Each structure stands twice: as structure tokens, then as C-alpha cells.
């Protein structure tokens, strides 16, 4: 299978997986909120956020192990690849055991750490327990995801993810439909989903790269030291993400109220999905980028980076523009029992940080690719610390608007960093002119502005007021079509048009 067809297959499988995850999330979230209330649902986001802090202890290895294994594999050095594989899995087992001894007493005394209404204490503790178990499973399974990456068959992971999503929904429907409503059902469903993907990735590893093995005496301190030397800077980047975005729900819980935390958690669902989409699309280009880098094919690497920027921006832009226009209508229909105006404002403020992330996400992978993470991670850490300080000051100085400060300030800092720091550093890492990526930025900005203006004109002067799901779907389809046509004209190059349009038309004809 040629590279372009392989990419198309990976792309469509990833989009189907993303659509399934997003669609089911939208369908099931209002049902869960109605069953348990916005405050209780807010603890789902808080649990994922707080447990995510534990990834600081695993990220140093897991964020770079795939890169080291893949580069060694493509160089034909199977012994070194086995060494990295064995060392990563062994280390994860040790880390999991250590973190468990810390997490158990913390969850047991959770009501002394965060604000929890008395009637929710036991329910929230069980939720946190399942979310932590999910984290353990995710940690142990990370090294097995390298198989589909090495063979550039990411569509297999997407298929497993779709099956896992279906199982999660079945569990949630069965639990909420037959038992008294509890928020911990969400944690159980999430655990089941991760367990299925874990098993699938283990099978993929056995079948796709059977020569990649766990060797009983293959653990290497030197391999761990080498990976940690590169990956420790990803921990710094993760710390920045926690300071900039990951503390928003916790700050809201402690300094504002659990109720507003629930509203912010709902508002963050779409931006979180957008972040997932950006990572998914950008990740589709990573196998080829890694291969080109390993072989020293700089021109092909630059071509892949530019294509990744355009195509990732293409898909993110559709969601961004459509929700910018019909966001409040969507929230009003989706969460009829909640404050639609406030949730929409929080959602729009949160999405502000993703305005440039559509094209910047691909470039954010460059420092890892070339193993130049130190200056990059320190730069982001400064952004995260600045964001956190400004966010706390905003809440304390403007308490009546504190919730909006929490939503907006981190995104403004992220926007500035994606506009300046990310493309400039990526250019420097690749020894390219500093302006080399800015033409794509300009194309993306122009396309977004034009699409938004056209959609707003249509929304205010020609389209009927949205009062039903049918009208919302029709409106979204029209605005999405306008954005797609604008992006095809102003953003995509000939190669990206070929990938998205020519191949798609061929598939439809067949």
C-alpha cells in the first residue's frame, strides 16, 4: 500500500473514531448530567485532571519510548529496539506500584483535599478510584501502541477505540438504566474502554512486529538514562500544561464553587474534543516524519510538516467556525436545564486557545522528533507559570468575573505562544528560515476570518432562528460546507487537496 493510500486509511479511521467518541459524548453527557447534576458531573473532569497530574511521573519515559523504539527499528537495529521496549515496560511496572501506594491514602481522604458535598463523598471517591485504575492501565499499555506506529497502521488503533467506545456506552446505559444514578459509573465505563484498547494493542504488537520482544534480561539502565535525558523535558512541558490548563477545574473548585466547576467542565467538553482531534490528525503524520528524520530526508520531512499543519488546521477550523456561530444555540438544545449563555461564553473563551493550535500542533512535535526538548520545554514552562499567576490574580482581583478569568487567561497565553514561540523554535530545530511556517499561519488566519464572516452574515440575515435539533443540524452542515470550501481554496495546497478530495472522490466512485 502506497504512503498516500495508507494515510487516507489512517485518516478516515481516525475521523470515524473521533466522530464516534465525540458524538456519543454529546449524546450521553446531557443524560448523565440530568441523572446526577452538574456539580457531580464536574468531578468527572476534576478526577481526570487530578489523576492526569500523575503522568508527570510516567511521561519522561512514555512520551519518548515510541520515538526511540521506532528510530531503532527503522535503522534495522532490532537488538536496541528490544532493549528500549523491555526497559520501558519494566520501568512502568515499578512506577505503577509506587504511585499506587501514594494514591490509595489520597483517595481515601479525598474530602479533605477538595470541596465535595457530603452526599457525594463516597460516590466521588469510587469515581476517583476507577479513574486511577484507568491511569494505571493506560500507563502499562503505552509501550504497546508503538506497533501500529512503526508499521504506519494507525487505523487499527482507531478500530479498537471504536469498539471500546461502544462497550463504554453499553456499560453506562446499563448502569444508569437499571441502578440508582451514581457518578462512579462513568469511571467504570472508562476503565472498560481502556482495558479493551490495552488488549487490542497487545495483540497488534504480537502480530505486526513479532520480532519486537520483551527480553527477560533486556532491561538496560543506559537505555533508561538515555530516554529520561530526552523525556524529562516533556515532563517540564506537562508541568506547563498543568499550570496553564490543568488547574482550571481545581482552582474553580477551591476559589469559586463546585457548581461553577461543573459548568466549566461541561464547557470544556468541546475544546477537549478539539484538542484530541488536533493530536489525532497531527499524529497521522508522525510515522512518516519519524521515518524521514531517521533517514535524513529533510525535504520530505518539511513537506510532511506543512501537510500536517494544513490538514490538521482544515479539520479543526470546521469545528471552530461552526461553534463560533451556533455555540449558544447548541448549548441551549444540548443542556436545556443549564445556563446556556454562561456555558457558551466559557466554551468560546476556552476555544480561543485553539484558534492557532490547528496549525501549531504539528510543529509542537518537532522538538521531540529532533530530540531538542530542553529550550522548548523551559519556554513553555515560563508560559505556564505566567498563565497560572495571572489566572490566580484575575480570580482574586475580579471575583465576580473569576470563572471567566479561569477560562480566558490560559488560552490567551497559549495563543501568543503558538503564534510566536512554536513556529520559531521548530524552524530553528530544523535549521530552516524563521519565517518558513508563517505563510501557512497567514493562510489559516485568512481562511478562518473569511469563513466566520460568511457564516455570520448567513446566520443573522438569511437563516431562520434555531429552535430544534433539525434546524441546528442543517445550519451546521451549511456552515461546515462554507468553511470547507473556504479552506480548500485558501488553506490547502495541491498535495493536501489531492489527499482530501481526489482520493475521497475515487473512494466514493468505487
Characterise this structure.
It is a single chain. This protein is mainly alpha-helical and 510 residues long. It folds into 2 domains: 1-219, no CATH class; 236-510, no CATH class. The protein has helices at 3-36, 38-52, 59-74, 78-108, 121-141, 146-150, 154-178, 184-208, 221-246, 248-256, 258-267, 269-294, 298-334, 340-351, 357-364, 366-369, 374-397, 402-419, 421-429, 438-461, 469-490, 494-509. Helix 1 packs across helix 2 and helix 13 crosses helix 15. The radius of gyration is 23 Å and the shape is globular. The mean pLDDT is 80.
Q: How big is the Rg? A: 23 Å
DSSP summary, beta strand count: 0
| Count, helices | 22
Q: Looking at the chains present, what oligomeric state does this protein adopt?
A: single chain
Span between termini: 17 Å
- Main beta-sheet annotation: none
Q: How would you state the average pLDDT, rounded?
A: 80
The stretches of 5 or more residues where confidence is low (pLDDT under 50) are none
Question: SSE string, helix = H, strand = E?
Answer: HHHHHHHHHHHHHHHHHHHHHH
Identify the overall geometry: globular
Tell me the number of structural domains. 2
Derived structural class: mainly alpha
Strand content: under 5%
Amino acid at each position: 500500500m502506497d504512503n498516500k493510500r495508507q494515510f487516507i486509511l489512517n485518516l478516515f479511521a481516525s475521523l470515524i473514531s473521533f466522530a464516534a467518541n465525540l458524538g456519543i459524548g454529546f449524546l450521553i453527557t446531557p443524560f448523565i448530567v440530568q441523572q446526577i447534576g452538574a456539580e457531580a458531573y464536574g468531578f468527572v473532569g476534576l478526577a481526570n485532571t487530578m489523576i492526569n497530574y500523575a503522568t508527570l511521573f510516567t511521561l519522561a519515559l512514555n512520551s519518548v519510548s515510541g520515538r526511540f523504539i521506532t528510530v531503532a527499528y527503522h535503522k534495522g537495529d532490532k537488538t536496541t529496539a528490544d532493549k528500549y521496549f523491555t526497559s520501558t515496560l519494566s520501568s512502568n511496572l515499578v512506577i505503577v506500584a509506587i504511585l499506587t501506594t501514594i494514591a490509595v491514602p489520597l483517595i481515601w481522604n479525598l474530602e479533605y483535599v477538595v470541596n465535595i458535598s457530603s452526599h457525594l463523598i463516597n460516590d466521588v471517591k469510587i469515581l476517583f478510584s476507577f479513574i486511577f485504575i484507568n491511569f494505571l492501565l493506560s500507563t502499562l499499555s503505552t509501550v504497546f501502541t508503538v506497533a501500529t506506529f512503526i508499521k504506519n497502521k494507525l487505523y487499527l488503533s482507531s478500530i479498537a477505540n471504536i469498539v471500546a467506545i461502544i462497550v463504554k456506552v453499553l456499560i453506562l446505559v446499563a448502569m444508569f438504566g437499571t441502578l440508582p444514578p451514581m457518578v462512579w459509573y462513568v469511571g467504570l465505563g472508562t476503565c472498560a474502554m481502556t482495558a479493551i484498547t490495552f488488549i487490542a494493542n497487545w495483540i497488534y504488537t504480537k502480530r505486526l512486529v513479532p520480532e519486537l520482544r520483551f527480553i527477560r534480561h533486556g532491561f538496560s539502565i543506559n537505555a533508561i538514562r538515555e530516554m529520561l535525558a530526552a523525556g524529562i523535558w516533556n515532563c517540564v512541558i506537562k508541568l506547563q500544561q498543568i499550570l496553564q490548563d490543568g488547574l482550571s477545574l481545581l482552582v474553580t473548585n477551591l476559589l469559586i464553587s463546585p457548581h461553577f466547576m461543573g459548568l466549566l467542565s461541561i464547557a470544556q467538553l468541546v475544546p477537549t474534543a478539539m484538542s484530541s482531534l488536533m493530536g489525532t490528525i497531527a499524529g497521522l503524520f508522525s510515522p512518516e516524519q519519524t521515518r524521514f528524520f531517521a533517514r535524513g530526508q529533510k525535504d520530505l520531512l518539511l513537506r510532511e510538516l506543512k501537510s500536517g499543519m494544513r490538514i490538521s488546521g482544515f479539520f479543526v477550523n470546521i469545528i471552530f467556525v461552526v461553534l463560533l456561530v451556533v455555540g449558544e444555540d447548541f448549548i441551549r438544545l444540548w443542556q436545556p436545564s443549564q445556563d446556556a449563555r454562561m456555558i457558551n461564553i466559557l466554551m468560546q473563551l476556552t476555544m480561543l486557545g485553539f484558534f492557532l493550535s490547528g496549525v501549531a500542533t504539528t510543529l509542537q512535535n518537532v522538538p521531540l522528533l529532533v530530540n531538542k526538548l530542553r529550550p522548548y520545554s523551559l519556554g513553555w514552562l515560563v508560559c505556564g507559570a505566567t498563565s497560572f499567576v495571572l489566572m490566580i490574580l484575575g480570580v482574586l482581583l475580579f471575583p465576580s468575573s473569576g470563572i471567566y478569568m479561569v477560562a480566558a487567561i490560559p488560552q490567551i497565553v497559549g495563543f501568543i505562544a503558538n503564534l510566536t514561540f512554536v513556529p520559531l523554535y521548530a524552524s530553528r530545530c530544523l535549521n530552516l528560515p524563521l519565517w518558513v511556517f508563517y505563510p501557512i499561519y497567514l493562510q489559516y488566519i485568512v481562511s478562518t476570518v473569511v469563513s466566520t464572516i460568511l457564516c455570520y452574515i448567513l446566520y443573522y440575515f438569511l437563516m431562520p432562528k434555531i429552535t430544534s435539533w433539525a434546524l441546528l443540524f442543517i445550519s451546521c452542515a451549511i456552515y461546515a460546507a462554507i468553511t470547507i470550501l473556504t479552506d480548500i481554496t485558501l488553506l490547502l495546497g495541491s498535495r493536501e487537496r489531492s489527499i482530501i478530495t481526489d482520493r475521497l472522490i475515487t473512494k466514493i466512485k468505487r
